[in-house]
Design goal:
Blueprint: E1 9-12, E2 15-18, H1 20-23, H2 25-33, H3 36-41, H4 50-56, H5 65-68, H6 73-82, E3 88-92, H7 95-107, E4 113-115, H8 120-128, E5 134-139, H9 145-161, E6 169-173, H10 178-186, E7 189-192, H11 206-214, H12 219-230, H13 240-253, E8 258-263, H14 271-283, E9 288-291, E10 305-311, E11 326-329, H15 332-350, E12 375-377, E13 380-383, H16 392-401, E14 408-414, H17 426-434, E15 438-442, E16 454-461, H18 476-493, E17 498-503, H19 506-519
Parallel strand pairs: 3-4, 3-5, 5-6, 6-7, 8-9, 8-10, 10-11, 14-15, 14-16, 16-17
Antiparallel strand pairs: 1-2, 2-11, 12-13, 13-17
Amino acid sequence: MSDLLAGPADAAAGLAVHGADAVDPSARAALVARDVPARLAAQDPTLWGAGAEATARTRLGWLDTHCRSRELLPQLAELTAELGDLDHVVLAGPGGVTSAAAVIADCLGRPLTVLDTADPGPVRAALADRPARTVLVLAGRDLDRTTDAHLRAFRQSWHDAGPEAARHLVVVTPPGSALEALADELGAVLIPADPQVAGPWSALAAFGLVPAALAGAPVTELLDEAAALAGALDRERDNPGLALGAALAGAAEHGRATVALVPDGTGLDGLRHWAGALLAAATGGRLLPVPAESPDAPGVGGPGVLTIGLGGALGAGVGPGVAADVAVNGPLGAQFLTWEYAAATAAVALRVDPFAAPVGVDDDGPAPADGPPSSVDGAVEVYAPAGAPDDLAGALRWLTDGLAPDEHLAVTAYLDRRVDAAVAGLRPLLARVTGRPVTFGWGPRHPGHPDGRARHVQITGAVTDDLEVPGRPYTFAELQAAQAAGDRRALTGRERPVLRLHLTERAAGVAQLLDTAGRTRT
């Protein structure tokens, strides 16, 4: 444990934040001088400036959604009992609204299949796993092309297997949405989502709680943990959310805008991915969250990096080699509310709108032809950007050598996160090579910033067992290719360099990428 973490902690309701004031002792004082703790707890929409006020008026429900969510508990208990024989729970929807449920299930050890990808591999696996015992939860405000494809595939599966489709479908959506109309049309179970909460802020609302409850998670305990913390959010001291938010903002103002989120070995390992997505959405590129594999992973320490350890048990050590600057320890429900409050507080200090709509990816239509690859190296086709070498090793070296002082490297894999999981090893390898921040994400969900200063590696892969989208003129693989192409169009339109690496054989290609990256030197 570092000396910083041995000092006083901000603690409430079993959650403690260690080391926050040592990051920037003046940051908390500046927020207190503006009466931010009391104003935020009172849901003051003017905190982020006139330009953000209108949106903030409709997006601050996360502060007390844990109270309103209790109204869901009787319905969830009844639904869970009614669907007791459906023991395979599948959640489909965009990453922003599925990430919290995935974290709850992961941290509490409950089985939940999350589909936020068009890759046919995980879709086919989910369809093959007990279709007659599957309940599909659709979450979101609208039916995007990917979720539409998932719904069509499952309805076809139920039709083929014989069960009544309506009983197997649960829709979680705000009142008046396009998904609500669809649920009525299909006769599905409809559970209203809190209209005052959106995206990653919805951890303790229906988007996070309904799928987790159906998977067997004790969601009442999460609400109790958040409620116990809520009374501390208007305080100037012993307010973990204020302490963490001040540390995040203070670090960014003093050149430490990269936030390494590391598990400390006491549980809640998956929380760092949700927290990273929240910080990316809330700070508009001012902070770069990097969910890292371990406390001693490459890219965790060093200049310009604020390292935060996350865990479930009260304590402050984060493992061998690297000590955290800040440690956040406590129960999951309190963690959700603390991080949401901290993200909103940091946005106040950094003068950004935390509720601004994210930049979307255009996947409308088939993927355009990229032309021939620059080169073919074993199982990898290289599509190098202008000015880059044609070969794999040279293109990677060009990309890493060319990083400017304010740039980072972002790797996005449009692959199967189960079968192709090893490709995530590129993040630490490239971080070791560059000595710079490197993020990794599974397309189309990515924890980075669409408008940030980044150089990009996009990894796609050949599909050997595609899957038709019933009633649509395209397959899942074609839809995924269109998403990847839309991502490339958006990035090149903002003049960001993109190196696309296409794996003609996935297992061999992943192994080749890891070997080449490990041998790359700047």
